[in-house]
Amino acid sequence: MKTMLIIKCGETFPETKVTFGDFEDWIIARSGLPANVFKIVDVANGAQLKHPSEYVAAIITGSQANVDDDLPWIEPLENWILTARYSNVPILGICFGHQLIAKAFGGKVILNPAGMSLGIININVTEEGKNNKLFKQTGSNFESFVHHAYIVDSLPNLASILATNDQGVVYAFSFDKICGIQFHPEFSPEIMQHYFDLLKINNARKNRFILKSSFKNDSIISNFIDDSLIL
Description:
CATH architecture: 3-Layer(aba) Sandwich
Number of strands: 11
Largest sheet: 9 strands, mixed
Low-confidence stretches: none
Strand content: 25-35%
Order of helices and strands: EHHEEHEHEEHEEEEEHH
């Protein structure tokens, strides 16, 4: 039986991992499925991926790495993503995963001119996004968590923009059955608070970490999985 794949592209901060677990744990928690449904492949630590057709769908995690870093696992993962498209395998890329998908298909990733994005932002769903099952419960806008320094500056040809932030930066796109999201629906308020504390952000305790209508954000991963299972 085919499994749902989580491609692990790194780890959270060691202090965060001790208390809250790691990227894959947060994704599974948001999925609504038991952990034994998932296969975790830690490519950042040298684990090898099988052919995409061996999996029902894949989720690519965030990472402390950047897509242009000279790391031995990044180019093979780009090639795997290209193969997945032609194998008709759905993929959801989160943050780093979102950027790597864009790069793999010819898009451009740059250092965000506005600087590091950290905290809660508003996600604006486009008309194309409203027709995509990834956003079937969100309406035209919702809040989510972010932690990134790089953004997708230009998309691959034929990609559709599904969501932006208030400044018009691409925060979600689709390319056939492949989607990328710049935000972190797998984060919890406690994880976001912990990141602020670790990074010693000024006045961190005065920031708001509770999402408005959190169910909209929380539905994204389960929406992807539900849609993948019926394709």
